[in-house]
Every structure is written in structure tokens, then in C-alpha cells.
Design goal:
By secondary structure, this protein is mostly helical. The protein is about 80% helix and about 0% strand. It has one domain.
Length: about 400
């Protein structure tokens, strides 16, 4: 079959998304900055944890808890960019990407739509993340009261307060990019796997339409050695390709599983932190000006867009695999000899296993997970609104 290997990352059609979520964090200067701010945040988290235990007051906890909860996600995001970003490159190099050429119109349309959609998403998400980082870098007086790293710097190193506070706050631009980069790595790599599945699906479609559906005498094909040998070569080619994609996908999933679980937990903690931020602000009678609204809106927009992209990526990957299974199941196996029938059935059994991004035995990244999280967030918001109404 006529498929040419792509020179990744040179010929990468998703280069904008790759630049923001992978390449940026491979630069030596950026790596050094990531390590610096990772150390900063770990030290501040340890100090604040100690202070929470020694100053056991509910008002004190309420003020600093929002930023404290958010620190877990920040630390995990920075650590992941150092420890696990190369997992995606390893998987794409191992799978040996094909060039997007010589395909049928339907699959070409799917691939072009995905590339265009994700390019627009990458630009939008990157701009929102940068904007959120800038807003956090220039906090209002109200926000400063709740940012425990600034309070620690002011209380323990007052002579260096301006310098260290400036150094810490400027890191929010990098932190904002890192916080969305980890999820966008899942979006990026999953999209490349889907594109490769579309290519394999296109090859499978050619096998069905050209070799069988256009044949005038299907019964004679069983006795035609030339046809059976040709069909065997092409079937094995497609099966090997799909098996390679599934194998590398499972390896990547296994390597990333622990990070996906941790991000799910820390993401829930971050969500609690955002809700606490609004609740505490209202409790302390903060005036919500333009800066505070932009502060909350930028976080929400970056988080929601990234969350939606991850959920859709996982779901679409499942859908493409289901399309491959249905297409293979529609293969007219009755024209195959005994040897080819065994090959066909073996691969059909393999395709019964869904291609999913799992982080537990029962939970995968798909619409069901998105609906469950949305339901829980709605429940939390309901409780939050009730608390606000009671306070009034």
C-alpha cells in the first residue's frame, strides 16, 4: 500500500499546539525557570502547611486556602513538564507517523477538520492562558491579601519583599502555560493517533471497495490464488499498522496513567480553590472590580476550554476505533480462504477491545467522564449558592 513516512516533527501539521505544550518546555532556559518556580512553590507550600497547623484559626485558613489548594495543581503541572513531556515524543517516534496523502475524500475531510479545529483551539487556549498569567502577575490589593506566598515573603524576608515578590509574580506567565500544557499534550498526541487511524481506515476502505466490491465474480475469488495472496498481504499490512497504533497507545497510556490520576485529583482540588476564592471574597466584602472579574473569568475560560478539549479528544478516539471495527466487521469474509479467514477473525477479536484513555479500570476520558464531572461541579455550585444566600 502506498503510504509514505512523515518526518516528524518537521512535517507536523499541529505544530502550533506542539510548540505551546511540548517544544516550549524543552528549551534550556524554560527548563531552568520551571525548576526554579517548582522549588519556590514547593517551599511555600511546606511553609504554609506548617503555618496552618500552628495557627489553627478558621479565618486564617479561609483567607489562604484558595491559593493553597491551587498550589497542588501548579506543582504537579511544573513537575510533569520536566518528568513526562518526552513521553509524547517517544510514542510518536515509535509509531512512525504516515503522511496524510492518498486517502479517500471522507477521511481527508475528517483529518482537515481536526487539524483546523485544533489549530484554532491552540491559538485561543494559548492566548487565554497568557492573559490569565498576566492578570495573576498583576494582582489587585484584594487578591494580594489571599496570596500566601506574598504574605510569607513579606513576613519572613521583609528586606527582600519587593524583589522576591516581583520574581514570584512574574512566574505566573510560565505557570499559566504549564497548567494547560499538560492536558494539551493529551489532546495533541491523541489527535495524531486519530489521524493515523483515519489513514489506516482509508487503506481498509480501499481494500473493501477496490478489491472486492468491484469484482464481477465473487465466487471465483475463493479459488483465485493471486487474489488471495494479494488480499493477505494487504490485510496483514493493515493489521500490523493498527496493532502498532494500539500497542504504542497502550504503552503511552500506561506511562501517563499516574499523571492523569493526579491531575484529576488536583483538578478537583483546584476547582474547590476557585470556589473558595469567590466565597472568601464575598465573606470579606471584597469589591469585585474589573480586575477580580478578569481574574476569575480567565481562570474559568482556560480551565473549561482545556477540559472540553481533553474530553472530546478521548471520546473522538473511541469513536474512530469503533468506526474501524464496524468497517472491518463489514468485510465480506466469505470470499476469503481458510488462511485469510483466520487472519480476519483474529483482528476482529482484537478490535473488540475499545481504544480508550484510561486512568482506572472503570474510568476513561470520554463524554461519560465529562458528564460526571459536570454533575459534581453543578452540585458544588448549588451548595456554594446556598451558602451565599444563607450569608445574605
Amino acid at each position: 500500500m502506498d503510504f509514505e513516512l512523515s518526518s516528524w516533527p518537521k512535517d507536523d501539521s499541529l505544530w502550533i499546539l506542539r510548540l505551546l505544550c511540548i517544544d516550549l518546555f524543552q528549551l534550556k532556559l524554560v527548563k531552568a525557570m520551571v525548576v526554579l518556580y517548582l522549588i519556590f512553590n514547593v517551599v511555600f507550600l511546606i511553609i504554609q502547611s506548617y503555618l496552618f497547623l500552628t495557627i489553627f484559626e478558621i479565618d486564617y485558613f479561609a483567607i489562604y486556602a484558595p491559593y493553597y489548594f491551587g498550589s497542588f495543581y501548579i506543582i504537579l503541572s511544573l513537575a510533569q513538564t520536566i518528568l513526562a513531556t518526552h513521553f509524547n515524543a517517544d510514542a510518536l517516534n515509535a509509531v512512525q507517523l504516515w503522511k496524510t496523502q492518498n486517502m479517500d475524500d471522507e477521511n481527508t475531510k475528517h483529518i482537515k477538520l481536526e487539524i483546523t479545529t485544533l489549530t484554532i483551539y491552540a491559538i485561543f487556549n494559548g492566548i487565554v492562558a497568557l492573559f490569565a498569567g498576566i492578570i495573576h502577575m498583576l494582582p489587585s490589593e484584594n487578591v494580594k491579601k489571599m496570596c500566601f506566598p506574598l504574605a510569607i515573603i513579606k513576613n519572613y524576608v521583609p528586606s527582600w519583599n519587593d524583589e522576591l515578590s516581583f520574581l514570584y509574580l512574574t512566574g505566573y506567565i510560565l505557570i499559566a502555560l504549564a497548567m494547560v500544557a499538560n492536558c494539551n499534550q493529551v489532546v495533541y498526541t491523541t489527535c495524531h493517533f486519530r489521524i493515523q487511524m483515519y489513514l489506516a481506515k482509508s487503506a481498509m476502505n480501499k481494500l473493501l471497495t477496490i478489491q472486492i466490491k468491484n469484482s464481477k465474480d465473487v465466487c471465483n475469488l475463493l479459488r483465485t490464488n493471486e487474489f488471495q495472496e494479494d488480499i493477505n498481504v494487504k490485510m496483514v499490512f493493515i493489521i500490523k499498522r493498527m496493532n502498532q497504533l494500539i500497542k504504542e497507545g497502550l504503552i503511552l497510556n500506561k506511562r501517563m496513567r499516574i499523571y492523569v490520576m493526579l491531575f484529576a485529583v488536583c483538578g478537583c482540588i483546584l476547582g474547590m480553590g476557585v470556589l473558595l476564592f469567590v466565597l472568601v471574597a464575598l465573606k470579606l466584602n471584597f469589591e469585585f472590580g474589573l480586575h477580580e472579574h478578569l481574574h476569575c473569568a480567565s481562570m474559568a475560560l482556560a480551565g473549561l476550554s482545556t477540559f472540553a478539549a481533553v474530553i472530546m479528544s478521548g471520546q473522538v478516539a473511541e469513536n474512530v476505533m469503533e468506526e474501524v471495527r464496524v468497517m472491518w466487521a463489514s468485510f465480506p469474509w466469505y470470499v476469503l480462504n481458510h488462511k485469510n479467514t483466520q487472519v480476519y477473525i483474529t483482528f476482529l477479536v482484537l478490535l473488540t477491545r475499545p481504544f480508550t484513555i484510561r486512568f482506572t479500570q472503570e474510568v476513561s476520558i470520554n463524554y461519560r467522564l465529562g458528564a460526571a464531572i459536570a454533575k459534581n461541579l453543578f452540585s458544588m455550585l448549588s451548595v456554594f449558592v446556598q451558602l451565599i444566600n444563607l450569608d445574605r
